[in-house]
Specification:
The complex is a heterodimer of chains A (176) and B (352). Chain A is mainly alpha-helical and 176 residues long. Chain A has helices spanning 4-7, 18-37, 40-56, 68-97, 115-123, 126-137, 142-149, 153-175. Helix content of chain A is 70%, strand content 0%. In chain A, helix 6 (126-137) crosses helix 8 (153-175). Chain B has 352 residues and is of the alpha+beta class. In chain B, strands 1-5-2-6-4-3 form a six-stranded mixed β-sheet. Chain B has helices at residues 11-18, 25-37, 45-70, 73-78, 108-115, 141-157, 188-196, 212-237, 242-274, 297-351, and strands at residues 95-100, 128-137, 161-168, 176-184, 200-210, 275-283. In chain B, 57% of the residues lie in helices and 15% in strands.
């Protein structure tokens, strides 16, 4: 038996289940965070945190306002920003007591990437890697990516083009 | 979400990036567990909102109809079609006013005289100013002449007099007659009934004002002035210095002057309260436009709703005007905080 709005001719949106959305977009969220953080463990933790946050705000999610992937990426971005903030605080604290000795960057994206690309990605800022992740990895269009980043589509396009150019140059440098 | 194409120059990088591994099995399992725990029904808040909105609309419509039909009892008493003022309260009120729009020869006022269902609120025991104007249509030019004569006869029969008359019948077309007659207030009711029977009423307006309180106040003032004048005269008869005599004499002259003015004013008030003024316009012309009939229940509800809506819009506009500087400040503050947050994020991501 259909609900009364349906009987009255009101179109009722079918709500997707959280499990289905989580299953469908898990890889995208993970890869987005992996490229942003360049660390598998951190990306796993942040992905887990993202889905926990999404689960808590699931009742407020409206698929008519944003696609599930965009919504999840916004949550993931917020989690990543929190992570970077706490990392920066930690680094500052440690620098103060460790007489300013530079620490080695042991982060790794894992299998699948050539060493030159991985080294090139390490030289990009998180902001540059983020736009690459959204537009290249997750294949968002310019407008959606700009929405997640909170900037205009033109700024997003410029940022992507600069990031890719820089990435290519760095790959070439490391390859030669 | 169709992706915008990426420049072909970066094909190799793109291909390699897209080959990045997905989430590990352990993470997948963790999220799957979370997903199955979240196997809950989506809340039906939209349906609830819709139901509440429909319910409110229904309540508003019913309230509008009920209020619209219930709020016009005084208009019913007036009886005139399209009456925009109700019959006033009884003659003891300081100011009374009645306005009637036309309908037919058998108008409410005519019926009032004949059937006695509606009576003009004129209390013969009190001074009352009555001013009436009527526009009556007569069938023909011949009828116009007869009706004008009849109106003058009625005036005289009721103890009044014709103050002015203007009669005009062009060789072709329509004719008009304008009469201003004064009729004792005691016969106002009869005058209204008999004048309205002269033709088809096109418009009429009656204003009634109680003058009794005004007349009483004037009378009291005159008595006080007389008393003062007598006292001054008595003082002047006594032993006085020349200066005092001059001063008292000038006071007495002023009081006498004021007494004359007040007495004249009082006479005018009494005359006004004894004789009513009727302005009759007799014409052979048809009314310019049909006057709308008494509005129905739905129309009244619609008017009521429109009025409420207008007031609401006016209130909202007022609030907007008053609050606009504050809103601008709030918007600017929000924009600034958002801008600052973006800058902080960008710096953070650039360093990370």
């Amino acid at each position: 038996m259909s609900s009364w709005p349906a009987r009255m001719g009101v179109r009722v949106t079918a709500w997707p289940s959280f499990a289905a959305i989580a299953e469908e977009h898990l890889d995208a969220v993970y890869r987005y965070l992996l490229l942003m953080t360049r660390d598998r463990t951190t990306a796993e933790d942040l992905t887990s945190e993202t889905f926990e946050k999404a689960f808590r705000s699931w009742r407020r999610f409206d698929p008519r306002r944003a696609a599930p992937r965009t919504w999840l990426c916004q949550i993931a971005r917020s989690a990543a920003l929190d992570h970077f903030r706490s990392e920066e605080r930690r680094r500052r604290r440690e620098t103060r007591y460790a007489s300013g000795a530079p620490q080695a960057d042991e982060r790794s994206l894992g299998e699948g990437l050539s060493p030159s690309l991985e080294a090139a990605l390490a030289e990009l800022s998180a902001g540059e890697r983020e736009v690459v992740a959204l537009r290249v990895l997750l294949e968002f269009d310019g407008r959606t990516a700009a929405r997640v980043l909170g900037i205009s589509p033109t700024a997003c396009s410029t940022r992507l083009s600069r990031a890719l150019q820089k990435l290519e140059e760095k790959v070439r440098d490391h390859g030669s | 979400m169709a992706a915008d194409p990426i420049d072909e120059r970066y094909d190799e990088i793109v291909r390699e990036l897209r080959a990045l591994p997905g989430a590990p099995a352990e993470l997948r399992e963790r999220v799957r567990r979370l997903g199955s725990a979240a196997d809950l029904q989506r809340p039906r808040r939209r349906g609830l909102t819709l139901a509440v909105a429909v319910g409110l609309l229904v309540v508003a419509a019913v309230a509008g109809i009920v209020l619209g039909s219930g709020g016009s009892s005084s208009q019913k008493t007036a009886g005139g079609a399209g009456a925009d003022k109700a019959w006033p309260v009884p003659a003891t009120s300081a100011r009374q006013r009645a306005i009637f729009a036309p309908r037919t020869k058998a108008n409410a006022l005519s019926r009032a005289g004949g059937g006695g269902s509606i009576a003009l609120p004129v209390n013969p025991a009190r001074l009352t100013e009555v001013r009436a104007s009527m526009r009556l249509r007569v069938s023909s030019l011949d009828g116009l002449s007869k009706t004008t004569s009849k109106a003058m006869r009625i005036t005289r029969a009721l103890g009044g007099f014709v103050q002015s008359v203007e009669y005009g019948t062009p060789s072709r077309g329509n004719g008009d007659a304008y009469l201003t007659v004064r009729i004792p207030v005691a016969h106002v009711q009869q005058a209204v009934v008999r004048f309205t029977a002269l033709g088809t009423i096109q418009s009429q307006h009656i204003a009634i004002r109680d003058l009794q309180d005004q007349a009483n106040a004037e009378e009291l003032r005159i008595l006080r002035l007389r008393k003062t004048a007598v006292q001054l005269q008595e003082k002047l008869r006594g032993q006085l210095t020349p200066e005092e005599r001059v001063r008292l004499q000038s006071q007495l002259d002023a009081v006498r002057g004021l007494l004359r003015v007040k007495t004249q004013q009082h006479r005018g008030t009494l005359r006004q309260g004894r004789l009513s003024t009727f302005q009759l316009e007799l014409t052979t012309r048809k009314a310019a436009a049909a006057v709308p009939g008494k509005p129905g229940r739905i129309e009244r509800a619609a008017r009521h709703a429109f009025s409420a809506l207008s007031k609401t819009i006016a209130g909202v506009l007022y609030a907007l005007i008053v609050l606009s500087p504050l809103l601008v400040l709030v918007a600017a503050g929000l924009w600034a905080s958002r801008y600052r947050r973006r800058r902080v994020e960008q710096r953070l991501l650039a360093r990370a």
